[in-house]
Amino acid sequence: MFHDVNGHTSDDMDDSEVNQVEPATQRPDQAPVLQMRDITKIFPGVKALSDVSLTVRPATIHAICGENGAGKSTLMKVLSGVYPYGTYTGDIIVEGREMRFRDIRASEEAGVVIIHQELALIPELSITENIFLGNELRRGVAIDWRSARARTVELLERVGLREDPDTPIKALGVGKQQLIEIAKALNKNVRLLILDEPTAALNDTDSEHLLGLIRGLKDRGIASIIISHKLNEIEQIADDITIIRDGRVVETLDVQQGAINEDRIIHGMVGRSLEHRYPDRTPNPGEVFFEVRDWVVQHPTVSERYVVKGSSLNVRRGEVVGIAGLMGAGRTELAMSIFGRSYGRFVSGTMTKDGAEIEVPDVPAAIRHGIAYVSEDRKSLGLNLLDSIKRSVVAAKLSKITHRGMVDAREERAVAEQYRKSLRIKTPDVNNGVSSLSGGNQQKVVLAKWMFTDPDLLILDEPTRGIDVGAKYEIYSIINELANAGKGVIVISSELPELLGICDRIYTVFEGRITDCIPAAEATPETLMRSMTSLNEKAHA
Amino acid sequence: MTSTDTKTTEQHGFRFSDIRGMFGGGQSTARQFGILGSLIAIILIFQIFSDGLTLSPGNVINVMQQYSYILILAIGMVMVIIMGHIDLSVGSVAAFVGIVLAKSMSEWNLPWWGAILLGLGLGALVGAWQGLWVAYVGVPAFIVTLAGMLFFRGANQWIGDSISVPVPREFVTIGAGYLPEIGGIPIPYNVPTLILGVLAAAWLVFFEWRTRRQQKKMGSERAPLWVSVVKVVLLCAVILGAALLFGSGRPGTSFPVSGIILLALVILYSFVTNHTVFGRHIYAVGGNRQAAKLSGVKDRRVDFFVMMNMSVLAAVAGMIFVARSQASGPQDGNGWELDAIAAVFIGGAAVSGGIGTVIGSIIGGLVMAFLNNGMQLLSFGADTVQMVKGAVLLVAVGIDAYNKQQGRPSVLGFLTRRRRPAGEFAGIDTTPIGARAMETPPAAPPAPSPRSAASQTPPAADDSATKEPGSR
């Protein structure tokens, strides 16, 4: 639920560096299974992909790496027909034939099957029903369940699963569900299997099994594209690696030809120059005033799954603290559980503010204790898009402008006007709806809303996602000034340069654990990425 | 109230947005403006075809009495619908409260005021029961109130043995009574009705004046003076005209008591939805429940009280109806929920929640009322009336849905929309990425001075805090 919906790249298109595209070495005897040529996809205001080319050789595993928002998922959506022909430019050639997919069905008919990170299985239906959903075997008008079941048994065998085909999906664990998805793909006569973060939700044993299966498919001539943040897996399994950054292909590495290791991949993923994109900052941190210790949180519905596993962190007054971690590492979950336990099931841990232990069982309590949380998902968690700017600004602390039970319209307007001026929210009138604003200005409204609650600690989750460069700079300036005013700020971001540019200290998170705490001055994207992709056993800072 | 573009305020002549601004300004107003136009059109058309019968004193009094309880239900229903819920039980709850009320007076000899208190209490109890299931057990309101619809209909017939139970005379006043006559003044009008009208007009003038004064003090933009004048004159004419109309009925009739109750409730609930924290929370939860929760709104509590409030208003409606028909019967309130829901949707509320106003729903209810009434005056059968009402509901909401899909406002909204200076701000930035990058090079953003800008920032928050130290 709190995962990235990828597809929009950051706004770093204007990076002046020119990226070399090295095409994968072609062997003359093998016609590629897939060629994507000069794919360009533009969203309103954002060029998500520009001239991306990709070649998948037959019977190989092709990994695509890149930071969150680099354009991986967009590329896969173009390939699988989610974005139909005509909404992008460029050519897709599958086994020598140019394809113009109108929808997912068309791409599946051509043998290109995508398995999304969020599985598309229906929990209440059985394995058989799921595998044949939308693809039902018929005898006359009726569904031929007998043949379907027999075929299912066969498919389950191929993916190494011993389950009754009548078992409902909800009775299976995530690992097995993943295998069912693959069985479903095999049933569609797949030529090219695309797996988006297949192991993100799996434990090590299940991951091993899944990767083994993908290798098995390769031996039987089925090529795969795998998108993963787990670089050690990629290193093990991939034949070719294409690295995408800011909507462009940076390079394509042939694993058999060169010594490819994690460091090499990380370098490709983050290797962009840090320009003057951040306001100057002279940190002046004070005392530690906020501390979380041994924080443990369970998944809201799956009780055996821990999303935060004993994390501790602290914040000083006037300090900007970063949290770096990949998608699904538990950053947002940690932040939201601190903010009045608004995510998951709280298990244990203590919170201290200004030297005293505090209880924050719900959001109103968090606001009372001066904690503010700006969500990563502005549109679905941060704002009521039906509301006006002025009403949004005061929404989190109406009590401040309520006298004798009446919300004071004059004060409301005055407050909104004040923030409109100080944060430079671009609108002619604070009576306008927030939906009329651009992303950057909407984000300023959200910031205003939380500044209005007089917080001591602000947790900003992806504060610059999906907003343009100029607005980003303004947001950074606001963060800076909040810290200078003696507030503690926690910034969660997927963009490492951003964290390095604005933070004083950065925690790294991997699989629900805080793996490291590095002063920003000493950190590099490479060191951060290393701690974000493995459990190095450094002590918790 | 009218808000105009900063750039164009200084000198402009006539603009449609000013006219729309007469009725409040803001996003949902275009819809209300449209439906208000439809209401006026419907009344005028029937006025012509019924040879002036529609706007005769007897008829308007009749419409007011006959539909006041539906309009009262619409007030509660719009809040339920803003929350994204629905309440199907209101007709049955009204009937259930009505029968208990009738029994309490005729058999247990409760005085009429005691019976009214009992009725309100019973409504609150029923509402708390349903609210409990919706808010805290998490059963969808559709199911809870469908169950309530069946249950309380049965309860009505069980308590009343499926026969009519009469109510005493003194109780009848709240449903069928009028403002009293004052003897000795030789004019052919009912004096209290006229006084009411004059008071309302005076309050309107005062309110407009105060708003303008406040806007001036705040230094915010104001609509041109002529707009305010035209607005006040028009509205006063409508109010005073209505007062004359209601006051000139046959002797003994005047503005009905049920109308007074309705007016009081409209004012009360407009205030609650617009100016109280609770009202804000209704829109917040209805508009985006997750965001509201993360802003510290206790959404379940809001669910609970909105459902409870609906049943209290259903009890009020039921009592007025019983008083008017002088008895409580087993079929009372049949189909009311549907009339109330239709009124709310015609009045511009959204099925998905978050949008709707009390005033809009009242206008929507009046559209239904005058349509019904006008067709009856023209001797259309009940069958035809039903069909037309169905069609009107579908067309009204259909136009809305169509416009939303097309991403443009209604025809009237289109005519009256504000003209924005190009490039001032836009929902979607369609500038090609290259061009945009040239406009705002990352190294030198347009920020004049982030330092000075933000140094004002924290005081902005602290300032208002010091004003009210007790607000924490």
General description of the model:
The complex is a heterodimer of chains A (about 550) and B (about 475). With about 550 residues, chain A is of the alpha/beta class. Chain A is built from 17 helices and 24 strands. In chain A, the strands form 6 sheets. Chain A has a 6-stranded mixed sheet with strand order 6-9-10-3-11-12, with helices on both faces. In chain A, strands 18-21-22-15-23-24 form a 6-stranded mixed sheet, sandwiched between helices. In chain A, strands 2-1-4-5 form a 4-stranded antiparallel sheet, covered by helices on one side. In chain A, a hairpin with a 2-residue loop joins strand 23 and strand 24. Chain A is globular and about 70 Å long. The two termini of chain A are about 30 Å apart. Chain B is an all-alpha fold and about 475 residues long. Chain B has 20 helices and 2 strands. The N terminus and C terminus of chain B are likely disordered.
Highlighted features:
heterodimer; A: 541 residues; alpha/beta; six-stranded mixed beta sheet; 17 helices; 24 strands; 30% helix; disordered N terminus; B: 472 residues; mainly alpha; 20 helices; 68% helix
Map the helices and strands.
The complex is a heterodimer of chains A (541) and B (472).
Chain A: E1 34-43, E2 46-56, E3 61-65, H1 72-79, E4 89-94, E5 97-99, H2 104-109, E6 112-115, H3 127-131, E7 138-139, E8 142-143, H4 145-158, H5 174-187, E9 192-196, H6 204-219, E10 223-227, H7 231-237, E11 240-245, E12 248-254, H8 262-270, E13 288-298, E14 306-316, E15 320-325, H9 331-338, E16 345-353, E17 356-357, H10 363-368, E18 371-374, H11 378-382, H12 389-394, E19 402-403, E20 406-407, H13 409-422, H14 439-451, E21 457-461, H15 469-484, E22 488-493, H16 496-502, E23 505-510, E24 513-519, H17 525-533
Parallel strand pairs in A: 3-10, 3-11, 6-9, 9-10, 15-22, 15-23, 18-21, 21-22
Antiparallel strand pairs in A: 1-2, 1-4, 4-5, 7-8, 11-12, 13-14, 13-16, 16-17, 19-20, 23-24
Helix pairs in contact in A: 4-5, 8-17
Chain B: H1 16-21, H2 29-49, H3 57-82, H4 90-106, H5 112-137, H6 141-159, E1 165-166, H7 169-176, H8 191-218, H9 225-247, H10 257-275, H11 277-287, H12 289-294, H13 299-325, E2 327-328, H14 336-346, H15 358-377, H16 382-406, H17 411-416, H18 433-439, H19 450-455, H20 457-467
Helix pairs in contact in B: 2-15, 3-10, 3-13, 3-14, 3-15, 4-5, 4-6, 4-13, 5-6, 5-13, 7-13, 8-9, 10-11, 11-13, 14-15, 14-16, 15-16
